[in-house]
C-alpha cells in the first residue's frame, strides 16, 4: 500500500532508492565509534575520568576533602574547583555559534546567559557536574575515588516547576543572570513580547468567534544509544580530542578559547556517532575542558564516557503554551495571541532559540496571512535537567499548540480543519492557499482515510466493547530551506579527481546516522556526471579532522544533505573547467572549444578520455575546494504533516496508534531510502514523547527517578504501528536542487496528530504530554 | 595488546563498587589463577581469572576491552537495550548481563564471527525497499539486532512478521529503523531458503 516516491525531475542518482554508503560497514559492526577507538589498544597508558555529580537539586559545596581519594592506588590526579586551572576558566554556555556557524567567546550567541562554571562549587540540578574530576587507571578506580571524596554539601531551596519559579519569593537559580528566574530580554531573542503584527485587540474585536486554550509539552530526552565519549591526548603543547561530538569546528573553538590556546594547536577528530538528535546543543560541553586538563596534568591520554544515567544530560525544553484566537464565521483568523512559558531547566543554553527565535521564524514562514499577531515568551530557570535542542528547536512545543488551535477553532466553526488550515496559513512570498500546504494535507487525508474515518468527537462506533477510534492530523512549516541556513555561513567541500578517474569527496560533516553521507555521494556523482562515474567510484571521507583545514558542516537543521550537495554542484563546474584547461594543450585547441561528457573530452574532430588525459600527465590529482554561503533568496518553505489513527481503550485509558501517515514536501528528494528512513524512524521518538517517554522527578527531594532505559520507556519494535512515509516535491527552494531538510521535522507534528485523534475518538481533550492512560481516564471523568 | 596486559585496561561502567560488592560472593570469587575456557567465534581460548579478568568482569567488557570485539556496544549496561547482544550456545544473550566467568565452557559468537556473506548482514545492509526506510542509520544498535535476528533464524528460518517482532522486542533502535529491520529479517529468511536452507 505504500507507494514509492516519483521524482519531479528524473535524475541519475539524486532521489534514488538504494542502500546507504556505510551500510555494509555498519551491518558488519565494523564502523568504529568513539568508545571503540578510545581504548588501551589505541591509547597506551589510557586513563579514565569521572566527574562528581550533585546528588541535590540545588546545593553549594561547603567543604571538600580529596585526601582519601588521592591515596587510592591507581588514582593519577584530581582536579577541583579550587585549582587555578579550573577556577580561572571563564563562565560559559552553549552558543559558540550565532546559529550554526562558529563564533568566538566574545560573539557567543547567548553571551548574557553564561551560566555554566566548569566544575564550579554550585550545583543547580541533581546530576550537575561540579567540584571534582578524577583521572585513574580504570573507570572502577575513578568511580571508587569519587566515592572516597568527602563532600559537605549545603543543600539549598530548589524549584522544579516553572510557574512556581516565576512566583515572588521563589528560590532563584542563577541570581546574577535572571533575578526572577526569567531570562531577561537579549539581542537575538528580543523582548518578552518578541513579535507584534497589527493589533490583536482590534482583531479579537472584529472576530465572530474567540476561543482560548492551553497545552503542555514535557521534556523528553534524546537518548542516543552512543553515550558521550571523548579522549584527550597531549603531544607537547598540542591537544588532540577524539570524540563523538557532531560539531568539530565549534568544539575546537570552544576548547581553544576556553583554554586560551592557539587554534592550530587544538585538533578535533570525530568519526561515526551513534545518534545525535541535537543533544548538548553544540560542541561546548564542559567535559571536553576538564578531560583535556586532566590529560595535561597527568601527561597521559584520558577518556571520559557517560554512563547511561549520565547520558540523561539534556532534553527538549518543556513548554506551556496559551493561545487566544479569533476568527470570522467563514473561517478567517482575525487575530492570534500566543504566549509560552518555557521550562529551560538549570542552564539557558539555546532555550531562547526554542522559545522566541524559532517561533518567530515559524510565524514568518507559516503565519504570514494572519493579520494581527502577538507572540510572547518567558524562559524560566528551574532546578531540573537542562533543555536544549532535540530534533528541532522549539518546533515540537509550538506545534502542540498550533495543531490544537487549528483543530479547536475548526470544530467551533463547524469546518474541516484541513479547510481552515488552507485558508489561513502559507508564506509571505507565495499564494494562499499555499500549494505545498494543500498537497501535504490532501495527500495525508487520502492516505489515512480522513473522509471515511473522521466523525464527530467521541461519536464513533465502539470496537470490542470498550474501544473508540479517531483520526487527527497536524501540520507545520518545514525547515530549513536554503535561505534559513544563510546564518550558517560558508559551507565547504572538496572534490579530488585522481589520475585514474576515481574521486575522493571530502564534504566534512560528522556522520551521525542522518544519511547525509549518502546524499553527498549521490550529489557528487550527479554533479560529476560529465566524468561518467558512478557512486561506487567515489570515496567519502568518513572522518572529520580539523587538521584538514576545512570547517565541518554541523549536523543540525537537517540541512547538511542538501547544502553540501549545492556546494558540490558548484565545485563540479569548477572541476570541469580545470579539466578542460588541462586538456586544451593536449588537444591543441582553446578550452572554450572543448566539451566533456560521459568521461570523454571532445574537440572539433578529436577526443580523449578523461582517464587517458590524466594518466599521461604527472599523475597529480585535480582538486577543487569550494566555500559557498547558502543562497538568501527568499523562497518560503514547504510543509509537513502527520496524520494519525488511534484506538483508545475507554476502560484503561490506553491509546494504541493504529496508523501514521507522514508527509513531507522535500522540494527535491535527495536520497529516497534515507528520507523514508527519517520519516519512519522519527516516529519512534515522536510516539515516545507523545505516549510513553517521561522524565519523572521526586517532587520532595527534587531528584530524577528514571534516568535509565527500563523506566524511561522508548518504544520498541512491538510498540510501533504501520507507518506510511510520503515524499512530495511541490515547493522548490533556491539552487540546483532546491531541497529542504526533513529529518527533524518528522517528529514535530505527530504528538499533536495523536492528541487530536484521541479527541476525535473519545470527545474530550487531553492537552498535556505525554498522553498517558491516567490523563485520558481523568479527562473521561473515570478517576 | 597481549593477553598479559594489566587488568587496568579493563573498563566498563558495570564495574562500579556497588556491583563489585554485590557480586563478591564465594561462588563468584574464583580463586586467583583459575583457568576458564571460552570458545569464541570457533576458537577455544583459555584465560586466567585474576590475570586476564576479574570474577566481576562482565562478558561485554571482557569481549570489547580485553579481546577487542568492538562490534557489540555497551549502551545501557543494564540489560535494557540489546546493543551488546551476542550468541551463546546458539541463543541470543545480553553480554552486559553475564559475567565473563559464566561463559566458561560455552561457545560465544560475536558479530565478528559471522561470515562475510552472512545472509542477515547482507539483508540489513541491502534494505532499501520503498516504504520501510533502511534497516540502519547511525548503526550503533545494528550489531545487537543482527545477532538477535541471527539467533532467531537459526531456530526458526521462516518466521512470521509477528515472530520477528517478538524476537527483536528487546532491542532498542533510537533512529527508529524497526520497519526496515523487519523487512531485512524477512529478506534474510528468503536468502537462507534460496541457499537451500543453509544459514
Summarize the structure.
The complex is a heterodimer of chains A (783) and B (199). Chain A has 783 residues and is of the alpha+beta class.
Describe this structure in words.
The complex is a heterodimer of chains A (783) and B (199). Chain A is α+β, with helices and mostly antiparallel strands. Chain A is built from 20 helices and 30 strands. The radius of gyration of chain A is 27 Å and the shape is globular. Chain B is α+β, with helices and mostly antiparallel strands and 199 residues long. Chain B folds into two domains: 7-112, Ubiquitin-like (UB roll); 119-194, [2Fe-2S]-binding domain (DNA polymerase, domain 1). Chain B has helices at 17-22, 59-66, 119-126, 142-155, 161-167, 178-194; strands spanning 34-40, 43-49, 85-88, 91-94, 107-109. In chain B, strands 2-1-5-3-4 form a five-stranded mixed β-sheet, covered by helices on one side. The longest helix of chain B has 17 residues, at 178-194. The two termini of chain B are 33 Å apart. In chain B, 56% of the residues are buried. The model of chain B is unreliable at 1-30 (pLDDT under 50). Chains A and B meet through α1, α5, α18 and β30 of A and α3, α4 and α6 of B.
List the defining traits of the structure above.
heterodimer, A: 783 residues, alpha+beta, Aldehyde Oxidoreductase, domain 4, Aldehyde Oxidoreductase, domain 3, eight-stranded mixed beta sheet, five-stranded mixed beta sheet, 20 helices, 23% strand, globular, B: 199 residues, Ubiquitin-like (UB roll), DNA polymerase, domain 1, 2 domains, 30% helix, 13% strand, disordered N terminus
Amino acid at each position: 500500500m505504500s507507494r514509492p516516491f516519483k521524482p519531479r525531475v528524473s535524475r541519475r542518482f539524486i532521489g534514488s532508492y538504494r542502500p546507504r554508503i556505510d551500510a555494509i560497514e555498519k551491518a558488519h559492526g565494523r564502523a568504529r565509534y568513539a568508545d571503540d577507538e578510545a581504548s588501551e589498544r589505541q591509547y597506551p597508558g589510557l586513563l579514565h575520568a569521572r566527574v562528581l555529580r550533585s546528588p541535590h537539586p540545588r546545593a553549594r559545596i561547603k567543604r571538600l576533602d580529596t585526601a582519601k581519594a588521592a591515596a587510592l592506588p591507581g588514582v593519577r590526579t584530581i582536579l577541583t574547583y579550587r585549582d587555578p586551572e579550573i577556577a580561572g576558566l571563564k563562565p560559559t554556555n552553549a552558543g559558540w555559534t550565532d546559529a550554526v556557524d562558529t563564533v568566538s567567546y566574545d560573539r557567543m550567541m547567548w553571551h548574557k546567559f553564561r551560566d555554566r562554571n566548569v566544575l564550579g562549587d554550585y550545583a543547580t540540578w541533581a546530576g550537575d557536574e561540579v567540584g571534582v574530576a578524577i583521572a585513574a587507571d580504570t573507570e572502577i578506580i575513578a568511580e571508587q575515588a569519587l566515592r572516597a571524596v568527602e563532600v559537605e554539601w549545603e543543600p539549598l531551596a530548589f524549584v522544579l516547576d516553572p510557574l512556581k519559579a516565576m512566583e515572588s519569593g521563589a528560590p532563584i537559580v542563577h541570581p546574577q543572570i535572571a533575578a526572577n528566574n526569567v531570562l531577561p530580554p537579549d539581542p537575538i531573542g528580543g523582548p518578552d513580547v518578541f513579535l507584534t503584527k497589527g493589533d490583536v485587540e482590534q482583531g479579537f474585536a472584529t472576530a465572530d468567534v474567540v476561543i482560548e486554550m492551553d497545552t503542555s509539552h514535557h521534556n523528553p530526552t534524546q537518548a542516543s544509544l552512543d553515550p558521550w565519549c571523548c579522549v584527550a591526548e597531549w603531544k607537547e603543547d598540542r591537544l588532540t580530542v577524539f570524540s563523538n561530538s557532531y560539531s568539530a569546528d565549534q568544539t575546537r573553538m570552544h576548547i581553544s578559547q576556553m583554554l586560551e590556546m592557539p587554534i592550530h594547536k587544538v585538533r578535533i577528530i570525530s568519526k561515526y556517532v551513534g545518534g545525535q538528535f541535537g543533544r548538548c546543543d553544540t560542541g561546548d560541553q564542559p567535559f571536553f575542558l576538564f578531560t583535556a586538563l586532566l590529560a595535561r596534568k597527568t601527561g597521559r591520554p584520558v577518556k571520559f564516557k557517560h554512563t547511561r544515567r549520565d547520558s540523561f544530560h539534556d532534553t527538549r525544553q518543556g513548554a506551556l503554551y496559551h493561545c487566544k484566537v479569533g476568527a470570522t464565521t467563514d473561517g478567517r483568523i482575525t487575530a492570534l495571541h500566543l504566549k509560552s512559558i518555557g521550562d529551560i531547566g538549570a542552564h539557558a543554553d539555546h532555550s531562547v532559540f526554542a522559545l522566541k527565535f524559532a517561533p518567530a521564524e515559524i510565524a514568518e514562514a507559516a503565519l504570514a496571512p494572519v493579520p494581527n499577531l502577538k507572540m510572547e515568551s518567558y524562559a524560566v530557570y528551574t532546578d531540573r535537567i537542562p533543555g536544549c535542542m532535540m530534533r528541532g528547536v522549539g518546533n515540537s512545543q509550538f506545534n502542540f499548540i498550533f495543531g490544537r488551535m487549528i483543530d479547536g477553532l475548526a470544530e467551533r466553526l463547524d469546518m474541516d480543519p484541513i479547510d481552515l488550515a488552507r485558508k489561513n496559513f502559507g508564506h509571505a512570498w507565495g499564494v494562499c492557499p499555499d500549494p505545498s500546504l494543500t498537497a501535504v494535507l490532501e495527500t495525508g487525508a487520502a492516505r489515512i482515510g480522513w473522509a471515511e474515518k473522521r466523525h464527530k468527537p467521541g461519536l464513533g462506533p465502539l470496537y470490542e466493547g470498550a474501544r473508540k477510534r479517531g483520526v487527527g492530523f497536524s501540520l507545520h512549516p518545514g525547515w530549513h530551506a536554503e535561505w534559513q541556513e544563510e546564518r550558517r555561513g560558508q559551507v565547504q567541500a572538496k572534490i579530488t579527481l585522481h589520475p585514474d578517474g576515481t574521486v575522493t569527496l571530502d564534504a566534512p560533516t560528522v556522520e551521525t546516522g542522518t544519511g547525509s553521507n549518502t546524499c553527498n555521494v549521490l550529489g557528487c556523482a550527479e554533479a560529476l556526471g560529465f566524468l561518467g562515474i558512478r557512486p561506487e567510484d567515489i570515496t567519502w571521507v568518513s572522518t572529520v579532522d580539523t587538521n584538514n583545514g576545512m570547517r565541518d558542516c554541523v549536523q543540525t537543521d537537517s540541512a547538511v544533505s542538501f547544502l553540501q550537495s549545492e556546494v558540490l554542484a558548484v565545485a563540479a563546474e569548477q572541476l570541469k573547467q580545470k579539466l578542460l584547461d588541462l586538456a586544451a594543450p593536449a588537444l591543441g585547441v582553446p578550452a572554450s572549444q572543448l566539451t566533456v561528457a560521459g568521461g570523454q573530452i571532445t574537440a572539433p574532430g578529436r577526443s580523449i578520455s578523461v582517464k587517458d588525459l590524466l594518466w599521461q600527465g604527472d599523475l597529480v590529482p585535480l582538486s577543487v575546494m569550494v566555500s559557498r554561503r547558502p543562497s538568501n533568496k527568499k523562497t518560503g518553505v514547504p510543509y509537513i504533516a502527520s496524520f494519525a489513527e488511534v484506538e483508545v481503550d475507554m476502560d484503561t485509558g490506553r491509546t494504541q496508534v493504529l496508523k501514521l501517515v507522514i508527509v513531507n514536501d522535500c522540494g527535491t528528494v535527495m536520497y529516497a531510502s534515507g528520507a523514508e528512513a527519517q520519516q519512519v524512524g522519527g516516529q519512534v521518538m515522536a510516539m515516545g514523547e507523545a505516549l510513553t517517554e517521561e522524565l519523572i522527578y521526586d517532587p520532595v527531594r527534587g531528584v530524577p527517578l528514571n534516568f535509565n532505559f527500563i523506566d524511561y520507556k522508548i518504544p520498541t519494535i512491538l510498540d510501533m504501528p504501520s507507518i506510511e512515509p510520503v515524499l512530495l516535491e511541490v515547493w522548490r527552494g533556491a539552487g540546483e536542487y532546491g531541497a529542504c531538510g526533513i529529518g527533524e521535522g518528522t517528529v514535530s507534528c505527530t504528538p499533536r496528530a495523536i492528541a487530536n485523534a484521541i479527541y476525535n475518538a473519545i470527545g474530550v481533550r487531553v492537552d498535556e504530554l505525554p498522553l498517558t492512560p491516567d490523563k485520558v481516564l481523568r479527562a473521561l471523568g473515570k478517576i | 595488546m597481549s593477553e598479559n596486559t594489566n587488568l587496568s585496561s579493563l573498563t566498563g561502567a558495570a564495574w562500579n563498587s556497588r556491583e563489585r560488592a554485590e557480586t563478591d560472593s564465594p561462588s563468584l570469587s574464583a580463586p586467583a589463577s583459575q583457568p576458564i575456557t571460552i570458545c569464541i567465534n570457533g576458537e577455544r581460548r583459555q584465560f586466567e581469572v585474576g590475570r586476564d579478568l576479574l570474577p566481576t568482569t562482565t562478558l561485554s567488557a571482557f569481549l570489547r576491552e580485553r579481546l577487542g570485539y568492538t562490534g557489540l556496544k555497551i549502551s545501557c549496561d543494564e540489560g535494557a537495550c540489546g546493543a551488546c547482544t551476542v550468541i551463546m550456545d546458539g541463543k541470543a544473550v545480553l553480554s552486559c548481563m553475564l559475567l565473563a566467568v559464566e561463559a566458561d565452557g560455552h561457545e560465544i559468537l560475536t558479530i565478528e564471527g559471522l561470515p562475510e556473506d552472512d545472509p542477515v548482514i547482507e539483508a540489513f545492509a541491502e534494505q532499501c525497499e520503498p516504504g520501510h526506510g533502511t534497516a540502519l542509520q547511525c548503526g550503533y544498535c545494528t550489531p545487537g539486532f543482527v545477532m538477535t535476528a541471527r539467533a532467531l533464524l537459526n531456530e526458526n528460518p521462516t518466521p512470521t512478521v509477528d515472530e520477528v517482532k517478538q524476537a527483536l522486542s528487546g532491542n532498542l533502535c533510537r533512529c527508529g529503523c524497526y520497519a526496515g529491520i523487519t523487512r531485512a529479517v524477512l529478506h534474510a529468511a528468503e536468502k537462507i531458503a534460496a541457499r537451500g536452507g543453509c544459514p
